[in-house]
Design goal:
The protein has four helices and seven strands, in the order βββαβαβαβαβ. It has 147 residues and is of the alpha+beta class.
């Protein structure tokens, strides 16, 4: 079940729903929301997604993914989008979220900290994970207590 996203706005940015995706158990994929990150005037500045629930894949890939278009970086928009998605996750009665990032991506690591995450550990990516096939080998794991 997916919930309304009409309240995902902080006055500076809003999340515009692109689509939802049901769980795909055979691939170990969880239900997900996919958003565009938009400025107050509706201009798209990036995208983000929220995966609902937890499994072995979300510990490596995270519950939240985000990307800000290069021209709009440096304004903490990704952290603001994460806070809005945390609100959406709370509607699903989730009590924590995981966000991961590449150890070399200091901007993404800072985003996790600004959004309220606590660094847990850096872990290797399993060989059977899609991220490994993309050439990634480790992720930093951040925990967000949202209860």
């Amino acid at each position: 079940m997916f919930y309304s996203v009409d309240d995902l706005n902080d006055g500076e940015i809003s999340l515009r729903l692109i689509r939802t995706s049901d769980a795909q158990p055979e691939r170990r994929w969880l239900p997900a929301y996919y958003f565009e990150i938009c400025l107050r005037d509706g201009e798209k500045i990036g995208q983000c997604d929220l995966r609902i629930g937890h499994n072995d894949k979300t510990y490596i890939g995270g519950n939240i993914g985000y990307a800000i278009d290069e021209a709009y970086r440096g304004h903490h928009y990704a952290a603001k989008a994460c806070r809005l998605m945390i609100h959406q996750a709370q509607k699903h009665l989730m009590d924590y979220l995981i966000i991961t990032c590449d150890p070399s991506n200091t901007a993404s690591s800072r985003t996790c900290e600004l959004a309220g995450g606590r660094y847990m550990e850096t872990v290797p990516i399993p060989m059977d994970n899609e991220m490994y096939r993309e050439g990634k080998r480790q992720v930093m794991v951040y925990h967000f207590d949202i209860s």
